[in-house]
Specification:
Bound molecules: cobalamin
Number of domains: 2
Strand order of the largest sheet: 2-1-3-4-5
CATH class of the largest domain: Alpha Beta
Number of helices: 9
Strand content: 5-15%
Helix content: 40-55%
Distance between the termini: 36 Å
Number of strands: 5
Structural class: alpha/beta
Shape: globular
Largest sheet: 5 strands, parallel
Radius of gyration: 18 Å
CATH architecture of the largest domain: 3-Layer(aba) Sandwich
Length: 222
């Protein structure tokens, strides 16, 4: 099992989707994300283990190599594609349509920021645990959020940012919401943000991972 998880991490790093994928050339014909996840699920390995010990492990290596100039944007895009594909497969393990909906949550990556893998992971975990997610996508400003809040009843908003520049836009979004009299709680997340930063910008909650946010929703807003 550990070997399969390690192979999965390598497939994320290399952006290898399935055995037919031509990328990377040196892995032609070998198992990709699709085959490895299928094998892991047949062994009854929980999705959480597949995500944490396979997918995220691979993405961590991508992050380190990108930081050190050993991987470049095109490589990272292949990894991101493989990661999002893997999450699409695992999503089917969470039969959200059979659960009673606990409430709606808006998720968005803030203005100027195009990173969506973390947000998509949060979405998958929330949906799999009975929350309906309104995914506003990436590069989202306060206007778009306020418009959505006018149309539908939402229990919480989750904002994601991956850049030290764009995390500052979270502050503006929270200010705009409060200035418009909107009291819906705002949670923030993403690699560069912290509990301290959340306090500084008057966010209601910070979690380094989706499960912390899920606990917050289940315990406070259910
Ligand atoms: C993949 C990636 C990209 C891909 C994104 C593809 C996509 N579809 O998302 C591409 C190639 C497009 C990209 C582009 C850029 N990137 Co980039 N990227 C990354 C990389 C390698 C991985 C990010 C990732 O997906 N991690 C995996 C996910 C699962 O982790 P996560 O997002 O942190 O999410 C977890 C938690 O934080 C939490 N979470 C996330 N959101 C939320 C929200 C809530 C509410 C909650 C509760 C929790 C939560 O849950 C998740 C699971 O635990 C990081 C490196 C890194 N170490 O993070 C660099 C990184 C973020 N990128 C970086 C940079 C510089 C850029 C570019 C500016 C590069 C350039 N020169 O153009 C552009 C910016 C584009 C833009 N405007 O956004 C820097 C940022 C540096 C900084 N200090 O700001 C990093 C850190 C790389 C580095 N070390 O230099 N990037």
């Amino acid at each position: 099992m550990i070997d399969l998880l390690n192979q999965l991490a390598i497939c994320i790093e290399k952006g290898k989707i399935n055995s037919q994928s031509k990328i990377p050339a040196d892995m032609a014909g070998k198992d990709g994300v699709e085959e490895l996840i299928d094998k892991l699920l047949r062994l009854n390995i929980p999705s959480k283990t597949i995500i944490e010990d396979g997918l995220l492990k691979g993405m961590t290596v991508v992050g380190e190599k990108f930081r050190d100039g050993k991987l470049f944007i095109p490589n990272v895009l292949f990894s991101a594609k493989a990661m999002n594909h893997a999450m699409d497969i695992l999503k089917k393990q969470f039969p959200s349509d059979q659960l009673q909906i606990k409430g709606k949550v808006i998720l968005a990556t803030v203005k100027g920021d195009l990173h969506n893998i973390g947000k998509n992971l949060v979405k998958m975990i929330l949906e799999g645990n009975g929350w309906e997610v309104i995914d506003l996508g990436v590069d989202v400003d306060s206007e778009k959020i306020i418009q959505k809040l006018k149309e539908t009843d939402v229990k919480a908003i989750g904002l994601s940012a991956l850049l030290t520049t764009t995390m500052l836009n979270m502050k503006g979004i929270i200010e705009d919401l409060r200035n418009n009299g909107i009291k819906v709680p705002v949670a923030i997340g993403g690699a560069p943000v912290s509990k301290k930063f959340a306090e500084e910008i008057n966010a209601d909650f910070y979690s380094p991972d989706p499960s912390g946010f899920l606990d917050y929703l289940n315990n406070n807003l259910n």
